[in-house]
Every structure is written in structure tokens, then in C-alpha cells.
Amino acid sequence: MYAKNAPNSTTRIYAILDDQSNAFLISSELADQLSANGPPEMYYLSTCSYERQEKFGRCVTNTIVRALNGYTLEVPTLVKCEGIPSDRRDIPTPEIEKRF
Q1: Would you list the domain boundaries of the chain?
Q2: What SS3 state is found at 94?
Q3: 35 closest CA partner among 70, 80, 83
């Protein structure tokens, strides 16, 4: 992943692109690496397990994700969100992912 205006400054990430979502959420650490220094903006988070919740997070724009196979995708606004699983045990393995 890299900022559109700094293609030589990349950050390796583990990302899941969910075609059922309309937002891209990132951790506080990644927001810091991508220089998200604006004020927190309000957004609503709705998931399968929770009602619609009001949240606040810093935003990052003009970001490119490049897959290992070279495919690139310009992503819309990224929003810093607390509570993104960061323990490797919370991340599905390819075998589990294939079941879905």
C-alpha cells in the first residue's frame, strides 16, 4: 500500500477486500504510517453482530493497494477504526477462507 503521491514509500499490509462493505477500515498504526493527521471524523459502523454505531476516526485519501501479483486498486477514503483484529489467531487462514 502506498500514498498516490509517494509510490516509492510502500507499506506491506494484510488486507481483506470485502465486496459486501462500503468502507475501508485501517488500524491506528497504519493511519500513522500513512500520515493521517486530520481531525477525527464521525462515521457509522454497522456489522452483522452489532447495531449501527457512531464512531470517530482519522481519514486517509489517495491511497493505492498493490497485490503481490501486481494488480493495483485505488481505494476510496480509509478510516482509522479501533478494534480491528491484530492477533494472527483472529485472521482466517486460506483454508478457512476457502470454505466461505
Answers
A1: 2-85
A2: helix
A3: 80
Question: Under DSSP, is residue 74 helix (H, G, I), strand (E, B) or coil?
Answer: strand
Task: Decide if 32 contacts 38 (C-beta within 8 A).
Answer: no
Residue type at 15? A
**pTM over cut 0.70:** no
Per DSSP, 46 falls in state -
Q: Which residues contact 78 (CB under 8 A, 6 or more apart)?
A: 24, 25, 26, 30, 31, 34, 36, 59, 60, 61, 63
Long-range own/partner contacts, residues 34-38 (CB < 8 A, 24 or more apart): 34/1, 34/3, 34/60, 34/63, 34/78, 35/3, 35/60, 36/60, 36/78, 36/80
In the chain the beta strands, taken as DSSP E runs, fall at: 2-3, 24-26, 41-45, 53-57, 59-60, 63-66, 72-75, 78-80
Dihedral sign of CA atoms 63, 67, 73, 77 in order: negative
Which stretch of 47-51, 57-61, 92-96 has the lowest confidence by average pLDDT?
Answer: 47-51
